[in-house]
Structures are given as structure tokens and as C-alpha cells.
Task: inverse folding
């Protein structure tokens, strides 16, 4: 994990937020390449939801919803973690996330507790854990100039509830009937206590959630469908099959409303951990909001049959997926006696698709390279780089996962061909400038 953190910082993908003030726990900023990578992850998700199917529609609901939302959803009463304090080192942990805390403590000796640091607080001679107490994870704030109980609102801890509140509206204007889904991507906020393992667990994070509404008798089949579809998505984007698994929750792990939940898990550097949860939520949410709002949230079929749809929910985290893609792509290899670090990202996810590099900064090479760059830019994220030796420039692109480098040399000026270097095989081929846009577009779409 430390290598991924270091690379992310070195290349400006992801770095601690508020760094000039010493940082703020579990909070990160995304730099240029991080933004591009994140956008590609989100785009791939939207494509899988919207472009590759025709039974899902999009939504972008508000972060601050009516406070009754969280009463009805059960978050106000039940969205809590069992919290334990270490009386010696004063750190706090989620009682159900002690394994994560252990991994983090092992990775950061400077913040370990006690004199026997590789153990958890509570396992040391000096440390003593308190009994768990319930701690609500929602961030509270207030609306308006006067802070009183009537003005209290919450930053959403998940995007899903906004979808349930808008269900009837979407049903009407999207002219849909179950089975159909509503998808959204947006920020959620949780007052997380367990140290974060980089961007695995942060205070604010983006979620990609989809609520799929179905007639009750179809729920089991659609649950199976979505479990498979979501596993396929990660695999198609290059996650190694032996690093990915689907884990069905034991009956005692299930939320009270869920008749089935499975986690897509990835073998992160700190061990198998959740990437995404897929839940069969029954009619719990719509029934709860109908009761609390007094609104009818039933579906009426043309034959007059009325029912509250059941819901299948695949809920993924953008940052966690991105971390899995980074971890899976990270590689160090020896090339011609030198070692290189390379991100073997799926080209769809790569922040930059092609780098255009003049071999030397003279003889008309930079001018021609800029022309080629301008042409390629119309089709894909392309970068021009003339600074430093060609070897250094290749390494830079390898580290951000650029699948192709196009080099302009003295031959290019004579025969209008360039060298295309493949990031993974390091194969170099000579290609006509005119054929380049088509060739790279085709490889990107493959
Ligand atoms: P965990 O058990 O790890 O806290 P969860 O089961 O509470 O996760 P869900 O409520 O199912 O998570 O949220 C769906 C997805 O949102 C998670 O699988 C994860 O990818 C992402 N997610 C949830 N909490 C966080 C967080 N604090 N930071 C980053 N991503 C998160």
C-alpha cells in the first residue's frame, strides 16, 4: 500500500487534503491525473448502467434532504458504529473493524499504540479498551441563521435515499414500470473513526449506487442477475480474477430489512475487503417513506394490480474501486537492466491514453509532434511532453499508466511515420501519421 500511496503522491494523483495545515484525518484530494482516472471509473460505471442497457435511468438528487428522510430510513436511530476508546493512546476504533485498525497500525509504526506496537490497542500490556458504545456516523449541520433543533439537517451518508424519495416522480416522467432502475453518482459523508488505509475509508467519498425496482416475485432472479453483472464489470476492467470474489453475507450479518446481501471483495494490500455491496432490500425503503410522508409509493399495473416494488441495490464506492484498479495495475519490473514502475491499467481507465514525444527539441520535431498531438486530442486524452530524456519521459508515462507513447524522430520528417510504444509489451512499431488516430481509437475501443 505504501508504494501505491507514494506513487499517487509523486505523480499528483491523490494526496492528503489540507496538507499545508498538517492534513486532516481520512481526507484526500485528487490532482490532475487522479481526476482523470476517477472520471474514467465513473464513466465506465455510467456506461454499464445507461449505455449498455435500457432499463436504468439517471438521477442527481440533493446531498441535504429533508431531515425526516433519515428518520424514516432508520439512519437516525440505527446508522451507528460500536465505538471503543483506547484509554492509553486515546485513539478510537470501530469494534467491528479491528482488523482494519490492525493493518493500519502495522503500516504506520509512528501511530501505534503502546510498547508492543504490532498488536491492537487492548491487546497491549498498557492499553485498555472501553466497552463499545453506539456512535452515529452522520454529519450534522444546520440550515439558517439560528441553530436549534428545528434547523438540524444531515449530510447524506448514502446516495440511495434520494432515489427512494424521487421514485414516484421518476416513475412518472421516465414512463417506466418495474423492472427498472434509477442510478446516481455523488458524494456521501460518514464520520468514520477507523483509520483509513489510504482512500479505502474516508470521511467524504463518492458512491455509485443503483436502485433496481422489481415486482416482488422477480426479486430473487434480479438479485442473482446484479451479483453477476457487477462481478463482470470489475473483471472486464482488468481486475485479476484471483483478486476478486463474491461473498454472501451470513444470515446473522444481514440488515433487518435485507433478505440477501453479498459483497464484491477485492484482495487489497491489507487483505480481502469490501468493494461493493449488493443487497436485496425488499420493500423496506419505499414502505418506510410512504408511511412517514403519507404519500402513495405503490405501482399500479395496467391490469389494476398494485404493489410496492422490491429493490435490488448494487452500491459501489468510486474511491475504493479506484484503489482496487490502482493496486491491481501496479507493477515493478526490470527493463534493460533498469527497474521501472508501471501502472498496467485498462486503457479505458488510463488517465492519459497517448503521449506524444519528440525525440529531440530541434529539427522541426516539436512542431510536427504538436500537430500530431492536436489531432489526437480531438479523439482522446493526449499529452505532449518534450522535457527530459526520452527514457525519463517513458518512465513518467508508465507511472501514470499511459498505454501508448508516440515518438517523433528524424525519420518522421522524411517519411511521415512515427514509433508507437506499447506500455505493457514495450513493443515498438512504425505507423504512418495519417493512420494513427484510427489505430489508437480502435485499440481503445477493443
Ligand atoms: P464498510 O462495511 O466498509 O463500512 P458499508 O457496508 O458500510 O462499508 P455501504 O453502506 O454498503 O458500505 O456503501 C457502499 C459502498 O460505498 C461500499 O462498498 C464502499 O465501496 C463505499 N464506502 C462506504 N463507506 C465508505 C467510506 N467511508 N469511504 C470510502 N468508501 C466508502
Result:
Amino acid at each position: 500500500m505504501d508504494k501505491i500511496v507514494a506513487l499517487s503522491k509523486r505523480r499528483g494523483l491523490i494526496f492528503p487534503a489540507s496538507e499545508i495545515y498538517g492534513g486532516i484525518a481520512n481526507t484526500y484530494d485528487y490532482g490532475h491525473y487522479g481526476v482523470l482516472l476517477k472520471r474514467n471509473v465513473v464513466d465506465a460505471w455510467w456506461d454499464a448502467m445507461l449505455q449498455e442497457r435500457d432499463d436504468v435511468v439517471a438521477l442527481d438528487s440533493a446531498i441535504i434532504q429533508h431531515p425526516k428522510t433519515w428518520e424514516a430510513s432508520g439512519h437516525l436511530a440505527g446508522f451507528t458504529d460500536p465505538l471503543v476508546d483506547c484509554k492509553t493512546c486515546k485513539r478510537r476504533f470501530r469494534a467491528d473493524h479491528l482488523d482494519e485498525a490492525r493493518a493500519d497500525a502495522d503500516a504506520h509504526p509512528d501511530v501505534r499504540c503502546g510498547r508492543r506496537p504490532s498488536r491492537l490497542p487492548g491487546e497491549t500490556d498498557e492499553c485498555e479498551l472501553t466497552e463499545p458504545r453506539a456512535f452515529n456516523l452522520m454529519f450534522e449541520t444546520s440550515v439558517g441563521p439560528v441553530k436549534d433543533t428545528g434547523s438540524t439537517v444531515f449530510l447524506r451518508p448514502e446516495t440511495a435515499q434520494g432515489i427512494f424519495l424521487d421514485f414516484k416522480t421518476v416513475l412518472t416522467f421516465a414512463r417506466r414500470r418495474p423492472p427498472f432502475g434509477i442510478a446516481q453518482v455523488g458524494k456521501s459523508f460518514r464520520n468514520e473513526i477507523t483509520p483509513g488505509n489510504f482512500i479505502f475509508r474516508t470521511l467524504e467519498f463518492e458512491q455509485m449506487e443503483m436502485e433496481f425496482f422489481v415486482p416482488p416475485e422477480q426479486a430473487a432472479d434480479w438479485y442473482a442477475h446484479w451479483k453477476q453483472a457487477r462481478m463482470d464489470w470489475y473483471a472486464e476492467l482488468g481486475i485479476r480474477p484471483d483478486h476478486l470474489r463474491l461473498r454472501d453475507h451470513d444470515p446473522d450479518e444481514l440488515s433487518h430489512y435485507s433478505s440477501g446481501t453479498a459483497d464484491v471483495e477485492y484482495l487489497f494490500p491489507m487483505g480481502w475487503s469490501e468493494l461493493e455491496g449488493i443487497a436485496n432490500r425488499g420493500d423496506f425503503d419505499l414502505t418506510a417513506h410512504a408511511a412517514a410522508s403519507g404519500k402513495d409509493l405503490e405501482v399500479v399495473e395496467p391490469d389494476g394490480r398494485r404493489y410496492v416494488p422490491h429493490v435490488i441495490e448494487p452500491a459501489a464506492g468510486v474511491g475504493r474501486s479506484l484503489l482496487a484498479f490502482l493496486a491491481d495495475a501496479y507493477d515493478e519490473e526490470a527493463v534493460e537492466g533498469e527497474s521501472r514502475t508501471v501502472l498496467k491499467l485498462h486503457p479505458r481507465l488510463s488517465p492519459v491514453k497517448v503521449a506524444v514525444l519528440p525525440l529531440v527539441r530541434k529539427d522541426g520535431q516539436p512542431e510536427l509532434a504538436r500537430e500530431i498531438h492536436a489531432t489526437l486530442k480531438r479523439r482522446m486524452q493526449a499529452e505532449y511532453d518534450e522535457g527530459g530524456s526520452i527514457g525519463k519521459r517513458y518512465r513518467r508515462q508508465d507511472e501514470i499508466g499511459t498505454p501508448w507513447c508516440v515518438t517523433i524522430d528524424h525519420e518522421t520528417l522524411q517519411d511521415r511515420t512515427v514509433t508507437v510504444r506499447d506500455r505493457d509489451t514495450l513493443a515498438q512499431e512504425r505507423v504512418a501519421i495519417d493512420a494513427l488516430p484510427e489505430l489508437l481509437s480502435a485499440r481503445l475501443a477493443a
Q: What stands out?
A: The longest strand covers residues 271-282. The mean pLDDT is 90. DSSP finds 14 helices and 23 strands in the chain.
